[in-house]
## 1
Amino acid sequence: MAIHLSVTLDAGDAWMSTSSGERFVLAVPTLNEAGNIERLLHEVRRVLNPLERPYEIVVVDDGSDDGTPEIVQRLGETDRRIRLLTRHHERGLAGAVIHAWNHSDGELLGVIDADLQHPPAVLASLLEAMDQGNDIAIGSRYVSKDGVAGWNPVRVAISRAGTWATVPFQRKGVRVKDPMSGFFVVRREAVDGIEFETKGFKLLLEILVRARIRSVREIPYHFGVRQAGKSKASASVAFHYLHLLGKLSRDLFLRPSPQ
Ligand SMILES: Nc1nc2c(ncn2[C@@H]2O[C@H](COP(=O)(O)OP(=O)(O)O)[C@@H](O)[C@H]2O)c(=O)[nH]1
Ligand SMILES: [Mg+2]
């Protein structure tokens, strides 16, 4: 699925702001996050409101049956900056995020998980890094030592091995420590018109390899524990990751790198 500037009118007047500056759209993908989503949206708004930057939060729900969309709908009735998009015949984290970005006309595209493993307070630093002119700002688990403190060691090892596997694909000058983070903000002009895989969890890696990225900033954060509900990472996610690595290696040999 390509990222493009949406011409659909549902983006409308959600921005609700007279302040100037680049508009920020934050994608929140959800699959059965009823125990987390209200607190997440509350905390995100508490961080973003004082920044006086036009923003909107687009929740993309893929058929949750635990009441997640109803909660978002209710909150959206009192705050137009919260919008709900539902998909009934599609699944996939990356595709959900792209779907949110495509239904907005914001210039800065962000993503955060709904389960509070990504601390919303870090959004302020990510946006500050974008204001300094970077093309992408990444919440990174590996910049500081305690980013994964408290994790199961097996999960740390798998995550590290997956990260090392990406080194050959990353372009010189934009190499990062956590290319598989699911918490970042990117400039729309860097990704506009580029086709991305929709199924996997690793949209960032593909952006780093294929988008028009010249400058990156990593902001350390501690990847917390899920507050409620269950992880959706599964064997199929690992399969899609391997598929993505295969595709990127073909690209590496067959295509010139983006300018
Ligand atoms: N819309 C949508 N959201 C998803 C899908 N898979 C996972 N998510 C959401 O993506 C975020 C990260 O998923 P999670 O299961 O916590 O992955 P983990 O942190 O790697 O264990 C959460 O907000 C999930 O609800 C999907 O297929 N569609
Ligand atoms: Mg999670």
Note: The chain has eight helices and seven strands.
## 2
Amino acid sequence: MKAAFYTRQGPAAEVLVIGEQPVPQPAAGEVRVRLRTSGVNPSDWKARKGGFGRAMATPLVIPHSDGAGVIDAVGGGVPVSRVGERVWIWNGQWNRACGTAAQYIALPSAQAVRMPDGLGDAEAACLGIPLFTAVEAVRRSEVEAGMTVLVAGGAGAVGHYAIQVAKARGATVITTVSGDAKAAHARAAGADHVFNYRSQDVGAEVQRITGGRGVDAVIEMDLPTNVALYAKALRPGGTVVTYGVSAQEATLPVFWLMRNRVTLRFIYVYELDDAERAADLQEIERLLCSGRLVHTVALRLPLDQVARAHDAVEQGRVVGNVVLDID
Ligand SMILES: NC(=O)c1ccc[n+]([C@@H]2O[C@H](COP(=O)([O-])OP(=O)(O)OC[C@H]3O[C@@H](n4cnc5c(N)ncnc54)[C@H](OP(=O)(O)O)[C@@H]3O)[C@@H](O)[C@H]2O)c1
């Protein structure tokens, strides 16, 4: 089969290769998916570059966790009726050598989720990491109707979904961006208040909007950078759910956090337990079936241009998701 892969870490153009790899056979409990799309996320370029000191887990890696396609074979114990099902994929390349940047992937049946009618293959390649992370972050923030939430980076792939998930739960959403185009994108997701974190005093704006109380929860894409904001923006007893960090370590205002009884939670979408995974999948299905989710496929390229796709994500040149089409 045709696949994109690398055998050493480094810059995209130097290490990513297009070539032939064996077609995988589904083992017991697995399905094989004929892929149509493959989604590119920040974790894909970070793994390819060895970010945060990560070595290659296997000698050859076919990257990408996210994707969509059609089940064309099943292993023992999986109902044959699944053949022909359109599915989206989560954890495609997590703890495994072979991800979705290929014509086929074989993986546990539960990691290939039936797609609702009407969802496109490109949009379905945005669910595994961006939407799943947003749903987990909002759920772990215990967002309910009437609450006010601050979503950091509301034009990001995860942030844009997080705004929508929090709005679907009935919250008021404040978000931060770095410019006008990103502000418009965050508003299109339903954000009630959008501030430029580079040019505005976000803490003062949050105080103004919440009548001096602060938000109930922060959904955070870069804790080390943004933690200084919480003393002004978060209410006593509030919660911060972090899914992103730009550095291995952070300096925290621990006395302030303690005195204000702040709950800090960290999430890692690849490592959810079965109950968390099931709760998120239920909420994802409800959101998809509502037909109201806005997906943002910002750049669509053929598999052959995988290096260009990685560079676009790594350099933050796109607003939304980057998706590869697979012949
Ligand atoms: N823990 C997990 O399971 C998990 C899952 C998914 C993603 N992640 C991580 O989460 C991060 C975001 O992922 P993503 O896919 O959403 O990336 P993305 O699409 O590149 O979005 C990141 C957004 O944040 C904005 N931003 C950067 N610095 C900011 C700051 N200090 N305050 C507010 N906004 C800021 C960026 O725009 P500007 O630079 O223009 O502001 C951009 O719009 C990445 O580090 C990724 O690796 C972790």
Note: The two ends are 11 Å apart (CA to CA).
